[in-house]
Specification:
The complex is a heterodimer of chains A (166) and B (142). Helix content of chain A is 72%, strand content 0%. With 166 residues, chain A is an all-alpha fold. Chain B has a domain of 41 residues.
């Protein structure tokens, strides 16, 4: 696999693209940008396969996470929308659907207002469902620091949204 | 003629009005956080971290927080199910090079392959170098 054979590389893309896409989408808020970051990251990974030491998924996650951070430093983006999977909506009525769209939009705005490091920690914890230990391993920081970031992110989000949603 | 590098000046002392863009990119709205106005109890954080069951936070003083996060979880749950759009994998495969990338290994880390013929050439080269060096040393001594 590490010899860089194209067909076998497809297996890696299939296996790891969903969590990486979710990370990029929640960090940037734009499906187009998330796709671009994912594409560039996998190309970079393919070109440097020989340099992988340790787990491929952790290595390629760092490439994607750095891609997101670089993009956030130079934001030039446009719209927000989401591609969802094919699962049926659990919201029955149009009112509930509207409510759901509003919550999505409000949470997007609130997430976007967080500093990148807090947004990253919150997304890794609450969207990607990672443990603090795994996050610390991936981001090269301590569990304590990450707990602090997640706590601060929650408190900031709650402060922004609780009036409407509590 | 020199270009006017001040893009918002009109050159006659007036300032050009900047167009107001109400559709500012969302991710461009990062603001410095002051002290959070909504402190969350450690117990609630522990519940959100999955370390405590919901029953342990179902108390009057935290019920507002619990309701809020259960509401947020409705959208977070949807985000957890998001998938990479189907066309992206094809796009990536089209974009990656057709041939395996060349490894750029420095010469001292490359594997040494010794065949009988290359061994003979190496031995002959070493012998020739040794003879030349000995001759040079002898000439210098005389």
């Amino acid at each position: 696999m590490l010899a860089g054979e194209r067909d076998e590389f497809t297996v890696l893309i299939t296996r790891y693209s969903d969590p990486l896409y979710r990370h990029a989408l929640c960090m940037t808020g734009s499906p187009d940008v998330a796709e671009d970051i994912l594409q560039l990251s996998f190309i970079k990974a393919y070109q440097h396969l020989a340099e992988v030491r340790g787990r491929f998924d952790a290595w390629v996650f760092r490439i994607v996470a750095n891609g997101c951070k670089d993009w956030l430093k130079n934001i030039r983006r446009s719209h927000l929308s989401y591609d969802e999977d094919d699962q049926p909506s659990s919201y029955a009525t149009p009112e509930e659907e509207l409510d759901r769209t509003e919550l999505r939009s409000d949470l997007d705005v609130a997430l976007a207002s967080l500093p990148a490091s807090l947004r990253e920690a919150f997304v890794m914890k609450h969207v990607e469902g990672r443990s603090y230990e795994e996050m610390a391993d991936l981001l090269g920081t301590t569990v304590g620091a990450l707990k602090m970031r997640v706590h601060r992110a929650r408190e900031a989000l709650q402060a922004l949204l609780e009036e409407k949603y509590a | 003629m020199l270009d006017d590098l001040q893009s918002d000046g009109l050159g006659d002392g007036r300032k050009r009005e900047r167009p107001v863009n109400p559709e500012r990119p969302l991710a461009d709205r990062e603001v410095p956080l002051g002290p959070p106005s909504s402190a969350i109890a450690d117990t609630v954080h522990s519940w959100l971290d999955g370390d405590l069951p919901e029953s342990s936070v179902r108390r009057a003083e935290w019920s507002r927080d619990v309701d809020f996060w259960k509401r947020m979880n409705e959208d977070l749950e949807r985000r957890r199910r998001m998938r990479t759009p189907a066309h992206v994998q094809g796009r990536i495969m089209e974009a990656i090079p057709q041939h395996a990338p060349q490894m750029s290994t420095p010469w001292w880390r490359r594997e040494l392959v010794l065949t009988p013929s290359s061994a003979l050439v190496a031995a002959a080269t070493l012998l020739a170098v040794a003879v030349a060096a000995t001759a040079a040393v002898l000439r210098f001594v005389r």
